Amino acid sequence: MSGITDLPFRSLAKRFGAGLVVSEMVASKAFAVGKEEMRLRAEGQGVDVHAVQLAGNQAEWMAEAARLSEGAGAALIDINMGCPAKKVISGYSGSALMRDLDHALSLIDAVVAAVSVPVTVKMRLGWDVDCHNAAELALRAEQSGVAMVTVHGRTRNQFYKGNADWSAIREVSDVVSIPVIANGDILSEEDAVSCLEQSGADGVMIGRGAYGRPWLPGHIAHFLATGSCLDEPTGSDLLELVLEHYDAMLDYYPDPVGVRCARKHLGWYMEGLLGPAGSLTSELSNLRKIIVTAEKPEAVRIAVRAFFGVAAERHVA
């Protein structure tokens, strides 16, 4: 979720009722030596429980980044041992750590010793089909003082192909006493219920399912707590939410970074508005082009309003 779960997005998700929101992946060494991009990723002002996710493969930098995060107000440190991206694993970080559990535990030990706040770990089922070692990593992490683990129901070599195997997460749930959070392909309230039943997990984490739907984690939390569904924002309420999100990104990022970073979010909102049919008329296509290419914020706002208006008139949404 790097480049997606920045502070504006997390703030919206929390406002809609998400139980916990976690920062983008923060490179520990770059953060520790003062890189501005990593400082921005670790920002949590205004979020009641500020959780920072750290990535790295050197204990000293992981520990220092954890200390700095706690000093800046983080209430929880999450260690990323699940990212499958080639750029991350080429540096022996993320899910590459699941190939060397002794080294992975040395990082966990260093972070736990460096801070007084809870430490959690995000992982996958393992490296590949021949290396399903999430249960072993989770058990050893618990013994080292980790407070919670999150497991994505795929191996690293699956990336995001196929379907997440929620039932495979049960092996982790069965061996640890700390909370286990299940992740992967949870796109609806019904998915969350099925995932919990199959995995035996204590909760669910929403990732890609929240693209263009920052309300989804909160709506799922509400359903699991009450059994009732909440209505998704539509019409003018959705339009105002989209524009609020856009303006928050412009305020958060330096110009022109905010305009460019917001484009993917606007794209997902438009896809959601179009619905399953998803076809673009020439008019909608032209408006979409303006929205994802224009450099002037006011031109983007005008096009967004027009896109929503045309979609509503044509009953596309």
Give an overview of the whole structure.
The protein is an alpha/beta fold and 317 residues long. The protein contains 14 helices and seven strands. It folds into two domains: 7-226, Aldolase class I (TIM Barrel, Alpha-Beta Barrel); 235-313, no CATH class. The protein has helices at 7-15, 28-32, 36-41, 59-71, 86-89, 101-114, 134-143, 170-173, 189-199, 216-226, 235-252, 257-274, 282-293, 297-313, and strands at 22-27, 51-55, 76-81, 119-124, 148-152, 180-183, 203-205. The chain has a seven-stranded parallel beta sheet. Helix 7 links the parallel strand 4 (119-124) and strand 5. Helix 4 packs parallel to helix 6, helix 11 runs antiparallel to helix 12 (257-274) and helix 12 (257-274) runs parallel beside helix 14.
Structural class by helix and strand composition: alpha/beta
Q: How many discrete structural domains? A: 2
The number of distinct β-strands equals 7
Overall pLDDT confidence: 94
Largest sheet: 7 strands, parallel
Q: What is the distance, rounded to the nearest whole angstrom, between the alpha carbons of the first and last residues?
A: 26 Å
* DSSP helix fraction: 40-55%
CATH architecture of the largest domain: Alpha-Beta Barrel
User: Are there runs of 5+ residues with pLDDT below 50, and where?
Assistant: none
Number of separate helices: 14
CATH homologous group name of the largest domain: Aldolase class I
User: How is the largest sheet built, in terms of strand order?
Assistant: 1-2-3-4-5-6-7
Coarse morphology: globular
CATH topology-level fold name of the largest domain: TIM Barrel
